[in-house]
Design a protein that fits this description.
Blueprint: E1 4-8, H1 12-24, E2 28-32, H2 35-45, E3 49-53, H3 61-70, E4 79-83, H4 89-95, E5 100-103, H5 108-119
Amino acid sequence: MGKKVLVVEDYADSREFLKYLLEDYGCDVIEASNGREAIEVVKEQAPDLVLMDVSMPVMDGLTAARRIREEKEFQTLPIIVLTADTEGVRSRVIDAGCNGLLHKPLNFDELKPVLRHFLLA
């Protein structure tokens, strides 16, 4: 059984693309389509890594990351933000307690070192 990665993305095609890349790397993928769902899935399934989109309906990714960090058992859960936004997003990502940032469109060459770092450490 591989490491469990939660993909939080409101676009189904983007989730499917990430799922394909992650499964090819040997990860077990779980999914959520908004920040509120992500919080519930984290509590229920305790993933090893979260890949979180920023801009989503219901609850955005940075708000969800802050709420996840409020839970003692998830304060060290790696959360990597995925975003197409390039304007001042890095400081907001750090302020939300996230561990890193990847820009969209994402490719496996950018994702692979992140997976190695957080899942094989």
